[in-house]
Specification:
The radius of gyration is 25 Å and the shape is globular. The chain has two domains: about 35 residues; about 150 residues, no CATH class. The chain is built from four helices and nine strands, in the order ααββααβββββββ. β6 and β7 form a beta hairpin. The protein has a nine-stranded antiparallel sheet. With about 190 residues, it is an alpha+beta fold.
Length: about 190
């Protein structure tokens, strides 16, 4: 009887040990599979807060097919344009699940490019490009480019948005109605003209 109990205890311990190793292996695999995408939405949010804190004038340039209009704007109008960059798809969980990342380093400029492309054709945000340059020992994001496509009835709207860190933003909107040439408008907002 003692031998039988010893055998059962030994089997239980061996089974438990094997199970612990499998659970540990699963946990390691899960942590290795976790993506380490850039936090683009957080970065853009901090940039918007930075501009909102500036006591400087903000210039707005709107280019139509035949002319360019220039005005100064206040923070609320700036925020209206800046919020176009804060797409719901940039929520970190959605971003990591719905976008594929490719990255490379340009040895000539010492800049790293991170390109995120949507796997889901139903999402409006199609592409995100982030450029980061090496400045001494730290990496700095120098620009963020977003490309959106929105279809409404017989109209296709394509927005190309470019954020230049601590300098400007640009929104180019192309509206194409069915069987008509696209109407393109570009708005550039500058808070640091250097």
């Amino acid at each position: 009887m003692k031998t039988y109990i010893t055998l059962i205890v030994s089997i239980a311990l061996m089974s438990s040990a094997c199970k612990s190793k499998e659970e540990k292996k699963d946990a390691e695999t899960t942590s290795q599979d976790k993506k380490n995408y850039l936090h683009v939405r957080d970065f853009l949010g901090s940039e918007i807060r930075y501009v909102d804190s500036l006591p400087l004038g903000i210039s707005k340039y709107v280019t139509h097919p035949t002319r360019t209009d220039t005005t100064y704007i206040q923070a609320p109008e700036f925020d209206q344009f800046a919020n176009l960059f804060l797409c719901p798809e940039l929520d970190q969980q959605t971003f990591e699940n719905e976008y594929d990342e490719t990255s490379f380093i340009d040895q000539t400029t010492n800049a790293a490019s991170f390109v995120y492309e949507s796997k889901n054709p139903k999402l409006h945000l199609r592409r995100v490009d982030v450029i980061a340059s090496s400045n001494g020992n730290s990496n700095n994001i120098t620009s963020v480019y977003l490309e959106k496509e929105i279809k409404k009835n017989d109209t296709t709207i394509i927005q190309k948005l470019l954020w230049k860190t601590r300098k400007s933003l640009q929104v180019t909107t192309s509206k194409q109605y069915q069987k008509q040439p696209p109407i393109v408008e570009q708005t550039k907002i500058v808070w640091n003209p250097e």
